[in-house]
Amino acid sequence: MQLPTVHPVLRDATTAGAAPDPEPAVVAVGLVKTYGTGQAAVRALDGVSAEFAGGRFTAIMGPSGSGKSTLLHCLAGLDTVDEGQVLVGGTDLAGLSDKRLTALRRSTIGMVFQAFNLLPTLTAAENIELPLRIAGRRAEPDWFGRVVAALDLGDRLHHRPSELSGGQQQRVAIARALVTSPVVVFADEPTGNLDSRSGGELLAFLRHSVAELGQTIVMVTHDPVAAAHADRVLFLADGRLAGELRAPTVDTILDRLKRLEPGGAPRGAPAEATGALDTGALNGERPARAGRRDG
Ligand code: ADP
Predict the structure, then answer these.
(1) Which of 35, 45, 109, 154 is 20 to 30 Å from the Cα of 83, by its Cα?
(2) pLDDT tens digit sequence for 132-149
(3) Any idea what DSSP says for residue 47?
């Protein structure tokens, strides 16, 4: 039997026989990232492969230290990998000079962080337009209007950040990420600075921008309520993929997380018992019997 010659990839596919998924917006193949050297070395990513289909909302979860932020930063070109490939919109990040990587990140990647990072002296509209201005461009009025409408910021555009609530400020930060029509928006704990009500509203807006604008979103979160807004949750443990959930709910996420924490279900337990996927195959190890996993 032919064994796979590439890292098997955790595909963003629906159940077998369903209509094919959209082209992947982001592809990660065999990502390895080590911090430090010698005895102090930490393998933050240990062979992670995954695809993120366009127009979908994916959450990345896992215990603290499992490599979530490292993965997000490597996918966004904010950090480099030691091994493996990241493709965003079909472009291999590793092949780019610093200058071209910066240009690509500006045009194809949107970032949202826990901190809103708005400029206090600029209005909401000016903050939203800032990345385009830096690139010497102006917002395309129709798109700007759709983004502002999707985030319900129409009556806040002339306010400065100090005149906005936390939730409104984060919506401005999301609009700023969306306004360049990026291939993907990466969000790192976007609700981390918000109370639960504003956080819930913000997640509904993120969901809405996926549905209304076809935006691809990849979000790191430790919050099962936040992750339950996604179409799909990928779980990391010890720098490796440890399964996924489609159409997640808070309960199914909590159940899966419990198994990933130290003292949870044994990592080698059968997939039927744990609901987990074949993590060995997902992480690039040769499956004992199966051929290529095509999702
Ligand atoms: P998570 O986001 O899941 O909490 P991280 O990606 O932040 O996990 O970290 C994964 C592992 O890599 C952890 O053991 C962490 O201590 C280590 N790590 C992350 N960033 C650095 C760094 N800049 N220098 C050294 N070790 C790091």
Answers:
(1) 109
(2) 998 889 889 999 999 999
(3) E
Question: How many angstroms is it from 230 CA to the middle of ligand 1?
Answer: 24
* Distance in angstroms (rounded) separating the CA atoms of residues 281 and 278: 6
Q: Any bridge partners for residue 60, and if so which?
A: 220, 234
Question: What's the whole-model pTM score?
Answer: 0.84
pLDDT tier for residue 23 given thresholds of 50, 70 and 90: confident
Integer Cα distance of 226 and 187 in angstroms: 12
Tens digit of each residue's pLDDT (9 = 90 or more) over 227-250? 999 999 999 999 999 999 999 999
Tell which atom from ligand 1 comes closest to the C-alpha of 239: 10
Q: Which of 31, 33, 35 to mutate to test the pocket of ligand 1 (most atoms within 8 A of CB)?
A: 35
Q: Measuring CA to CA, which residue among 14, 21, 26 is closest to residue 247?
A: 14
Are residues 153 and 161 in contact, defined by beta-carbon separation less than 8 angstroms? no
